[in-house]
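User: Could you check the structure of this?
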Amino acid sequence: MRMDEICRHFPACGGCDLIDKPYEEQLAWKQTFCTNLFSRFAVKQFDSIIPSPEIFYYRNKMDLCVGGGPGGLIAGQRPKTYSSGVIDVQDCKLFMRGLPKIVAPVTTWAGKSGFSAYEVYKRTGEFRYVILRHAKASDEVMAILVFALSKEEFRTCEDKFQQLGREIEAQGKIASVYVCLNTSRSDNSLTGEVFLLCGKPFIRERVGTLEYRVSPKIFLQANTPACEKLYDVISRAAGACKATVLDLFCGSGGIALQLAGQAARVTAVDNSAKNIEDARQNAADNRVANVEFICQDAGEFLAAAAPSAFDTLVIDPPRQPFSRKMLKSLIACRPRRIVYVSCNPFNLREDLKSLVARYAIERLTPVDMFPHTKHIEVVATLRHHNPGG
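Assistant: Sure, the predicted structure tokens are below.
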């Protein structure tokens, strides 16, 4: 790695682990990690890790913590060695160029308006996060400003926010600005109600031939260029046959809409009403008619599903491991094929221990969605030993 490619904030910043290593070395490390992690299983085909098409400025979402600096408020990342404090990130090589031009007007406005940085442990201050979403295809930017304010407190100082909205619209650098009112004790950034302050209600991203609406709380794979590679792997794993597909934890329909062209019917389930609303709109925008989106808990839907009702099950779960009840329902559903997309390989390994009694692991495919970090995405393709029984 050339010195000019190593971020000036490394290694203090907690955003990167491996940016000082050549990319080929990073991939080799991740390949070895996956091989060792799944060594106990009989895997018919273990693919080489698929590299990210872009290794710099690839992220489409960044959560910036707000802190206090010598010259006023700053927005950046937590230090790697401890959870309090903020590093003033002037250039993040993972997210987008020109970060200070986007962030500085917001932090300057907040300081002038009398807002202070939120202290997690002391529970003092108001300004918690600046969350940025950057649609790579359209180059549109959405900013979500997270404040520890109640709705009543927000209404009393709404004129200050309206002033910011006018300033942002005049600059023309940000397409959409939301305010999120987050008074929770946890440090989860995007918790609470969101209100559109100015601009468009959503920005647009494209993956392959499909276009997606990006709203504040929507889940979208963080690496847009690599997302297309990931979806290609999932589509290949699901098969080109005219099958019935169940997509659990579907989010805004990213995977379901990709599979619609090769499936007879896709049923997609998510417990977020907003996700389902956006997914249905994405289907309408892309003129996809053979996908049904259902707002329901994935476990409850799976428990009620008739055995063999779906030929292929695609699951892209959150980081938490499956419960025993969920795994029991999954096995009882008895799909012929399972495509398990995992952002947490440790959870995948634990779930495979329960699934291998009835399913053969046909293929494991690592995908590097997060260059310069230790995170790895893995797609497991499983086939039932006795699909008719």
